[in-house]
Amino acid sequence: MPTQREVDEAKIRQQADKIVEGLRAKDLDGLKQLYTTDVVSFDVEPPLQHVGVEAKLKNWAKVFTFFQDVNYEVRDLTLTVGDEVAFGHGFGRLSGTLKNGTATCGMWVRVTFCFRKIDGNWLIAHDQVSVPFDMASGKGVADLEP
Q1: What does each C-alpha distance from 58 to 19, 64, 87 come to in angstroms?
Q2: Which domains does the chain have, with CATH numbers?
Q3: pLDDT tens, 5-27?
């Protein structure tokens, strides 16, 4: 019989799968169900933080304006699960076919998810996406792979 922690971890992994599914389907309504209303996102796009689910969805909507077909993958997601909060880290890659027909393999980024258990559902309360940067040039390094 699985422990409550194992059950919760499985539910959180399902939420990560739903992010992938929602992005591939360009389903903003489905994605909205995965976040707390007050989510704080440290995304790769300015500004430094995006506060609230509507701000987070605007970022995803912007992605959909550039891509004809979207693919997203999460790799090496490691989770630490508590009773009411959990966090995870791994790597994510957004790729696909741009509206002009150009295929892009995207770039790997570092991702961190923080979840809160609300009414039995694990929702993303915070996420952070980043790329390493080269200290000498001050530029992001976008060609690394896990």
Answers
A1: 15, 10, 24
A2: 4-133 (3.10.450.50)
A3: 999 999 999 999 999 999 999 99
